[in-house]
């Protein structure tokens, strides 16, 4: 490695939000002279590339003791570990001897502080959203070591539209609490419904993880399915006439920065359901398809985002009845949609958070204190 700070990045394997955040933070850290590695597993590896990483350490399927051993072996090679929301691995990294920084996109949501975030030696980076600054101010344990950063998006060219390609951004979909066959069922239902519900003159491009790409294959005609880098996704969104996205916060902020009119798809976990409700309530949503619109009663509850079995009945019912209801709702949502309302989120919470987060991490690494 060179002379710059040596930082090992990591992301939780829950959807694409954490993995995308790590990829964006890596680019910013590398631009500031940091030497980078990545440690993680599963579909998070889909978005991690060399460069900016000089090494990628795959820990897919390792037990907790094996992860601890691997991290102990890496601790001497890096000055710190920056995890995007893998709170368990962050705690393991502390046990392995790492200095740890945690990027948290959902600081607004958690009912309490994760153990690793409670650690007085950990740098906490909280992405701004409704209630985040109030939450941080009310937590004495976070005083002096939490940096609230804007969304990890950069201002760029506005929405141009005019393209003939509707974008469906499913994010990563995969997470440890959702069976793979249900992930595939959801993806197939949504993609087929959008394809049927939008004009035949438009093509449909689906953005998702490599696992979902393999699962969908060519099963839905007239659709292109792929895994793209974030810059490529933003380019697609700025040209699209409109888009459909799962309501992860990363997707919502991508809708905001691109300006594309966006319909939020049915939530796949608790945080997505809450986020869709919040942005709609505040007027930052162009359109939304909810499970209730499809005649399904889905209650994710108010707890952590484990949702094993919650969607089983709804997916089975919709699969048995075909995608006619979904396609009908797609057509309705396009006719009713607003135009770029998510952009107001950036007026409220700002942009450029990746640069601010990278600067905070490097100052912390070089300074030696939180």
Rg over alpha carbons? 20 Å
State which percent range the strand residues make up: 15-25%
The chain-level mean pLDDT equals 92
Overall outline:
globular
| Percentage of residues assigned to helices | 25-40%
Total strands: the figure is 13
Order of helices and strands: EHEEHEHEHEHEEHEHEHEHEHEHHHH
Number of helices: 14
Q: Uncertain runs with pLDDT below 50, 5 residues or more?
A: none
SS-based class: alpha/beta
Q: Give, in spatial order, the strands making up the sheet with the most strands.
A: 3-2-1-4-5-6-7
Largest sheet properties: 7 strands, parallel
What's this, in brief?
The protein is built from 14 helices and 13 strands. It is of the alpha/beta class and 370 residues long.
Q: Could you characterize what this model shows?
A:
With 370 residues, the chain is α/β, with parallel strands linked by helices. 39% of the residues lie in helices and 17% in strands. It contains 14 helices and 13 strands. The chain has helices at residues 17-31, 64-75, 87-95, 115-118, 132-137, 180-197, 210-216, 230-239, 249-258, 270-281, 312-320, 324-336, 344-349, 353-367, and strands at 6-11, 35-40, 53-58, 80-84, 100-104, 123-127, 146-149, 165-171, 203-208, 223-226, 243-245, 262-264, 287-288. A 7-stranded parallel beta sheet has the order 3-2-1-4-5-6-7, sandwiched between helices. Helix 8 (230-239) packs across helix 9. It starts with 5 loop residues before the first strand and ends with a helix. The mean pLDDT is 92.
